[in-house]
Amino acid sequence: MGKGVARSTAEPMGASRWLFRAHSLLVFVFFYAPIVVLVVYSFNKSSVVGKWTGFSLSWYGDFLDNDNIQKSIWISVKVCVASTVISVVLGTLAALSIERFRWWGQKFFDAVLYLPIIIPDVTMAVMMLVFFGETAQWFNVIPGVNLTDGLEKLVLSHVAFNISFVSVVVRARLANLDASMEEAAADLYANRWQTFRRITLPQIMPGVLGGALLAVTLSLDDVVVSSFVSGVGATPVSVYVFGMLRKGVSPLINAVSVVILVASMTLVIASLVLERATSSQKGK
After folding, report:
1. 58 Cβ partners below 8 Å, 6+ apart?
2. CA–CA separation, 186 vs 180, rounded Å?
C-alpha cells in the first residue's frame, strides 16, 4: 500500500518538472528570440529588413562613419555618467536619511520620492519641460550652467527620476542589514562618518552598484523625457534612433541597437565581476 502511494505521487512530480522546464524554455524564447533576430539581421547585406541576402559588416561601417550617431552616443555617455554619479550620491543619502533617522516631514518626503516611479513618463516629461521653461533664467545665473543647449537639462531630468530608483534599491539593502555592527562601532568611539565609511558603506555597496547600474540603464534607454527636454545639438542616441525609425526601419538601426546592447551587457558583466571580487576579498 505504501509503495503504491509513493509511485502515484512520484509520477505527477516528474510530469510537473518537465512541464516547468518546457514553460521556462518558452519564456526564454519569448524574451530572447527578438534579440537574436536583431543581432542576426544587423549583419544582413540587404537594406530591406526581414529579407536576408547575405552576410555583411557594411552597416557597422556606416555606423562608424555616421558623425551624427557618434555625436549622439557621446552625448548619451556624458549625460549617463553625470546623472548616474549625482543620482547615486543623492539616492544613497536619501535612503540613509529615511532608514536610519527620524525627522519632521519624513513620511511626506518618502511619498514624494516614489512619484517618479509611479507617474507616467509623458507626465514627467511635461513637468520637466514646463519647469525648465519657467526657471531657465534662474539656472543661467550659476557659472558654467547653460540650459539653452539642452545638455544640462538632460542631466537634471535624468537625475530627477533616477534618484527614486537608486533610493529604492539602496533602501532594500539597508532594510536587511543588522544595525548591531553600527552600534558596536559607536561603542568603540567611531564617529558617524567613520561608521558609514568602514561599516555601512561596504555592506550596502552591492545595493549602491545595483542602483548605479539601474540608473545607467534608465538613462541610456529613456526616450520620452529626453525627447521633451533635449535641445538643438544635444540629442541622445535613444532619441536619435527613435527619429530614424520615422523614416523606416533599416539594418543601420539594428547595428546601432546591437552596439547599445553590447555596451549594456558589458556594464552588467563588469558589475557582477566587481561584486564577486569584493565578496572574495571580504571572505579572505
Report:
1. 45
2. 10
Alpha helices in the chain (DSSP H): 2-41, 58-65, 67-100, 106-113, 115-118, 121-139, 151-175, 180-187, 192-195, 201-221, 224-229, 237-245, 251-283
For 55, the grid coordinates are 552576410
Which of helix, strand or coil describes residue 1? coil
Sorted by sequence, the CB contacts under 8 Å of residue 227 that are 6+ apart come out as 125, 239, 242
Contact indicator for 87, 215 with CB cutoff of 8 Å: yes
What are 115's three cell numbers?
A: 512619484
Single out the residue of 224, 83, 225 nearest to residue 155, CA to CA: 83
Q: What backbone torsions phi and psi does residue 44 show, to the nearest 5 degrees?
A: -75, 135
Can you tell me the distance from the alpha carbon of 34 to that of 43, in angstroms, rounded to the nearest whole number? 15
pLDDT in tens, 76-94: 899 999 999 999 999 999 9
CA-angle at 209, arms to 208 and 210, nearest 5°: 90
* Mean per-residue pLDDT, 264-281: 71
Report the 10 Å Cβ neighbour count for 13: 8
**Any idea how long the chain is?**
284
Q: 201: how many CB neighbours lie within 10 A of its CB?
A: 13
At residue 8, the pLDDT reads 47
Q: How far apart are CA 3 and CA 17, in angstroms?
A: 21
List the grid coordinates of 134.
519657467
Q: Which residues have CB under 8 Å from 83's CB, separation 6+?
A: 154, 155, 158, 159, 162, 215, 219
Looking at per-residue pLDDT, the higher value among 178 and 198 belongs to: 198
Give the up-direction half-sphere exposure of residue 166: CA atoms within 13 A in the CB hemisphere: 29
Report yes or no: 169 and 92 within 8 Å, Cβ to Cβ. Answer: no
Query: Among 43-52, 55-64, 135-144, which range has the highest average pLDDT?
Result: 55-64
Residue 177, classed as helix, strand or coil, is: coil
